[in-house]
Amino acid sequence: MINWGNFISQCFNGLVLGALLALISSGLTIIYGTLGVLNLAHGAMFMLGGYAGWMAYHYTGSFIVAVIAGSLFVLVVGVVTERLIIRSFYTRSHEDQLLVTFGLGIIFVETVRFFFGSLSKAVPPPPPLLGITSLGFMFYPTYRLALLGIVAVALLALYFVLYRTRLGMIVRAGIEDSVMVDSLGIDVYRIFMLVFGIGAMAAGFAGIVNAPVVSIAPDVGEAILVQTFVVVVIGGVGSFPGAVLGGLIAGEIISITSMFDPGYSYVMLFVAMTLVLVLRPHGLLGTAGRE
Amino acid sequence: MAAGLIAAPFILPYLGFTPSTINRILVWGLFGIGFDILFGFTGLLSFGQSAFFGTGGMVAAYLLTIVNFPYVVTAVFIGTIAAALVGYLVGLIALRRTGIYFAMITVAIAEVFYFVEFSPLSAYTGGENGLPGVPTPTLPLGFTTIQFNSDSSLYAFLAFWYFVGMVLALRIVRSPVGAVLRAIRDNPLRAAAVGHNIHSYKLTAFVIAAAYAGFAGGLLGIMQGFMPPDAFTFDTSGQLVMQTAIGGAGTLFGPLVGATVWLYLSDFLQTTLHLGATWKLVLGVVFVLLVCFLRRGLIGGMSNLYALVTRPVATPIKPGQGAVPTPAMTVEEEQKAIAVEIATAPVAAPMPAAHRQNGDFSGLILEAMALTKRYGGLVANSAIDFSVRHGERRGIIGPNGAGKTTFFKMLTCEIEPTSGRIMFEGRDITGMNVTDVCQLGLTKSYQVNQLFTRLTVRENVTIAALAELRGKFRLDLFRRLLKIPGLTEQVEHTLALVNLTDRAERPVAALAYGEKRRLEVGLALASSPSLLLLDEPLAGMSPRERVEMVKLLKSIGQGRTMIIIDHDMDSLFELVERVTVLQEGRVLVEGTPEEIKGNKAVQEAYLGGVVAA
Amino acid sequence: MSNGKTPFSKSLSRRHLLQQTAATGLGLGVLSVGGPRGFEFVSSAAAEDQPPLGTWPAGSQGDTVNIGAATPLTGTYASSGEDELKGWQLAVEHINNGDPLLKKIAPKVTKGLLGKKVNLLVADSGAKPNDAVQAEQTFINQNKIILMTGSTSSAVAVALNHFAEREKVLYVTGISGSNDTTGKDCVRYSFRQNFYGETAANAIGPVLIKVFGKNRKAAWMTPDYTYGHTVTKSSFDYLSKNGGWTMVTNQVSPLGTQDFSQYLTNIANSGAEILLNVNWGRDAVLSIQQAKQFGILPKMKLVIPYQIPFLAKEVGPELTEGVYAATDFWWTLEDKYPLAKMFVDAFYKKYNYRPEWGANNSYMSFAIWARMVSEAGTFYPPDVIKTYEKGETFDSTVGPVHFRPQDHQLVRPVIIVRGKAPKAMKNNEDYWEVTEVDPGAPLMQKPDAFGCTLGDYT
User: Fold this and answer.
1) Cβ contacts (< 8 Å) between C34 and chain B: which residues?
2) What are the tens digits of pLDDT across the range B330-351?
3) Strands B393-397 and B578-583
4) How close, in Å, is residue B69 to chain C by CA atoms?
5) Res C455 pLDDT > 70
6) Domain endpoint, select from C302, C327, C352
7) How far is C152 from chain B (nearest CA, A)?
């Protein structure tokens, strides 16, 4: 028997989770699409955004400052990481790239643990967004509703950057044909640095806006990273629309399955990924180009 | 190695290793052997090995504790088989993709195993409690029974199995399968093109790695007397990857070295320096530094150092063998001089094409009918009709962008035509894959070198020859390479034919460009094709290298059908009997070299500019 | 595991060894059938009265004896782990300087134990069984520890139970709420001081029925591991049988869950009137905070069947007001028990906050161990165990208590507390008021009801 009120609420949960996954996955996917590097430290970027935001909140008490600080900090971390380390790995194998980003992820997580300890930190939502809102047919936490809007705006902003700016054109051209970009005479390295920073910032932004929902701890990124992989595989590597679609699908699968038995939500997510791999090996919206 | 294993328990404690740490190192080392075959030898980086480690361990522990199955070692073997079976199923899914996709899929699958083990299957796995009470193994000797229940006797037990695992792994790595795995690591595209079913080989490596993981998992349970659910966590996979990379991938011993460093540092940082949770940060930094600066881990670093010390002066490798031509000579004089010099050099006897099932087939060896390839709106090839007789040497020319390479790719089934059919020796090969077509006797050499770059010249040729001698897939895991009948002869012959015998032991990276080009042809040749396609074999060569290559092509062309694409018209016309001219994806004209030279349309479309000048 | 949990012990291993004969899979080419019993390869030493056993006597030959604690300093249970550590440290300090409080519990302790200084070694277990076992193994090898402690997760307690049995080194649990710890996974070498699922349920059950009435609809939130399942089962069994309560939903979440929205949505739509939250550590804090975000609290009445240290501090007294919880110790018991007062004062003096029950459990389990060792007059493990098993009654921070020899569980009262309203708090740690102190014996199951059979002494 399905309780329809519960079903709709769970769909809403799925939407919020899905939007968040979509945002994080877009960051991962544009970095990979442009630079050809799968950033295993992406989960750590999500975590760093949360902590940087928490620090800012701690000193200013302003949620908006926290969001800005969290995002900018991760942008800087991304740019610096690219400049110092990732850059020398473009010419090396995918496997080496995976190893180094994996190692960087550990360093980020353990550094945070070193300075902040393992206890979770809470960032409360801004006062106007406290409490619950009635949607007529159900009640829903106000901040989670707002989160849906915030993430949607962020995704739109990312869309704008990718599809309406010169940088975005280059990035998308790079995803489709990296050789072409090389021959355009563009300073590819500068672009790469920026893309890595923006991709990381997407995760960092998600990390701080999600902090009021679940509070932050050094290892929050790991679980998110694995879900992000599934999203990217479902949506298609390197595809921004794919990441958004994949995120929403993953969010809904997790939520709707948990209506019946939360223990199986992850298993169902995996079943979906397998189905996609069998039926559309390059993901729902991916192209055969990159591997 | 055996000596090392025997000495270790006497030496290591003095360096601050506790007995249980040494045992743990062996378990991780064994776990890593399988992973190294997968990652170091086949180039597949999996972040999901915990699934198999846990599966093997849990199955064994389940049998030994809940079922009260009495045979410890047998239980571990059953766990190993279970892990291998699971590995086979997971491999079917994960190996649909390669590279980062593969890494991501393995992570996701392993995570599912963790969840499934933890909750739905907790009745069998003990959920978060794991399975305590795993008994220690015993060895009945008739007059007495040895019980492996102390740290030192367990060490003997684990060391024995590590030794067995290592011997088996060495046999696998040195078998034909091992050679093919390395080929897949270096260049999967070419490994498939010379006729190996790379998917099956990758699956083999995956299953081997899963079996080693399962076995090590079983030993972990025995060693601790407790099978922990933590074995299934992502941490386990990550630690394995890091240990292997620290020690050095592709060495088999790397994981053991890595585990030693890892566990020692972890013990040292935690119990001696009292760093608490910070130990992992230190190890993370060590790991990143190693990946950045020591690409092949500690073992690779040490062997580089050793090479540096023992080889005082590196001898520069000269391209070709001859002296540098004197600048006084004109180009023509130089060409002539080279031609004379090369013509007088001895030539290896040509190697006949192997007889295939349709060996006595005469008439058309290849026939393409209305072959068309479209990329979106772009038509690369349009309704090409093309046929080649047995024993013919055919040239294909055409301006850049005429669709020559696309045409070749369709003929060798690297890409599927949009429409049209291809017949090879009377058989319809349309829609087959490049591996099967190569096994039928049709292969090509590539326009851009596709070599197995980390292997030697001899190994390169061997891999191609293996495909012909062993078929596209065979599980001769423990056979020695040298024991394959005809292999040595075929490799030697191919090497002689492409004039690389004295370069046989060089790594590919140390070859001059012309030599690499010859090896490229040699790879195609080593599988004794009845139809050989050569995509611009002369491209980018020096005049001397060209003359050598033409001579090589002439000699291998005897008794073999060849189709050659090239821009060097003079050389090509000298080599082939008939020429097909492609233009804008269509056949412009076909005829003997003389006819083509005299053809107005060709001159206008292609040679026009040259003639006018 | 139907026939008990002895495979760690040598007797069963020996049986294995005899049956091992068909292990031709070994590949060793040995095909003998059976070996004569009784010929021992392993250290069965001389015909002394007390042959070496585990770390005895090596561990107690010097001036100092070592204790190894594996406690979570990272992860979901880190905050409780740190608190427990403080309890052990205080106990060790008291043993070494012969503190009056400690002497009330263990009168024969002078300065140090049997003339030796006690030293505490600590490692982070992350609440993971494997890490805990590894850490203790290292301590045994390197430091010859004579006592192990630490858990906070019952999974760790169960693993260390079996490990203790194999290594023949005593183990006193840290926080462990699962029935299994002194139930089906009980061992000769392990002892538990604190309350557990069954006693918690039987203590809080009558209170809940009295306060909320019969035939209520309740939702459970259960962490997916032994502790969670046993506490949920014990509390549901009591409430359904005696109060006719129904379980409208039971939301089982993995340890370390961050986002409880899916679970909470199911609860919000389940029509439950009362929410029994069995989650623990950070899981409990997050689930309660998020339940408020979803408007479930204060709409539903929250009950904590098994108290979480620092819960009120972390979620705030607004959320715990009126909440009923079963616990092991609360500092206001100082008004009732003189030893509790001494303990709270000593702890407050050293750490500047009032102890929660995790720290109390740590202190008490060490103090009791010191009592048993000093009464036995030896560190020899079987003698110490037998002293525990005498079941003598002694005074504690919650009044007179004694051990049950059949399952090594301390018979001790369970404390029921109710959350105070913020304005009723007398100081900043006055979160709970004690409403009842239930004597332990009637709350406990029969010693063998949960399948406990203890192993061998040697």
Assistant:
1) 140
2) 656 666 666 666 555 555 555 5
3) parallel
4) 9
5) yes
6) C327
7) 13
Instruction: State the Cα–Cα distance between residues A219 and A47, nearest whole angstrom.
Output: 7
Report the alpha-carbon distance of residue A257 to residue A229 in Å, rounded: 19
- Name the residue with tokens 């945070």: A112
Structure tokens at C331: 């500092």
- Are the Cβ atoms of C282 and A6 closer than 8 angstroms? no
Are the beta carbons of C25 and B230 separated by less than 8 Å? no
Test the C interface: residue of A143, A213, A257 with most C CBs within 10 Å: A213
Q: Is residue C47 part of a domain?
A: no
Q: Where are the domains of chain A?
A: 12-119+127-218
B317 against A125, higher pLDDT = A125
Farthest CA pair distance, chain B: 99
What is the domain range of residue B104?
A: 2-307
pLDDT of residue B277: 67
Residue B410, domain CATH: 3.40.50.300
Structural domain tally of chain B? 2
Closest residue in A to B296 (Cα–Cα): A96
Among residues B307, B322, B337, the one where a domain terminates is: B307
Pair (C204, C77) in one structural domain: no
**Is C224 in the A-facing interface, judged by CB distances under 8 Å?**
yes
Q: SS3 of C286, please?
A: helix
Share of chain C above pLDDT 90, in %: 64
Tell me the C-alpha to C-alpha distance, in Å, between residue A272 and each of A276, A280, A281, A291, B265: 6, 11, 12, 21, 41
Q: Which residue has the tokens 């003598």?
A: C392
C293 and C357 share a domain? no
**For residue C445, what are its two tokens?**
């199951």
The CATH number given to whatever domain includes residue C228 is 3.40.50.2300
**A139 contact C CB<8A:** yes
pLDDT at B339: 61
Q: C258 lies in a domain?
A: yes
User: Sign of the CA dihedral B14, B16, B20, B26?
Assistant: negative
Give yes or no for a contact between A143 and A212, defined as CB atoms under 8 angstroms apart.
yes
Size of chain A, expressed as the number of residues it contains: 291
> How many angstroms separate the CA atoms of C375 and A280, rounded?
73
Which chains contact C through at least 3 pairs of Cβ atoms less than 8 Å apart? A, B
Say whether both B458 and B592 belong to one domain: yes
Has this prediction a pTM greater than 0.90?
no
Residue ranges making up the domain that contains C103: 58-195+337-407
Residue of chain B with shortest Cα separation from A105:
B284
Q: Which two tokens stand for residue C395?
A: 């005074």
User: What gap in Å lies between CA A12 and CA A18, rounded to an integer?
Assistant: 9
Residue C433 domain flag: no
Whether residues C313 and C262 share a domain: the answer is yes
Q: Is A6 within 8 Å of chain C by CB? A: yes
B321 belongs to a structural domain: no
Span C60-79, pLDDT tens digits:
999 999 999 999 877 778 77
Q: How many structural domains are present in chain C?
A: 2
Structure ipTM = 0.89
Per the domain annotation, does B355 fall within a domain?
no
Q: What pLDDT is stored for residue C137 in this prediction?
A: 87
Question: Last residue of a domain, which of C280, C302, C327?
Answer: C327
Contact at CB, B18 and C124, closer than 8 angstroms:
no
Whether residue C189 is found in the same domain as residue C285: no
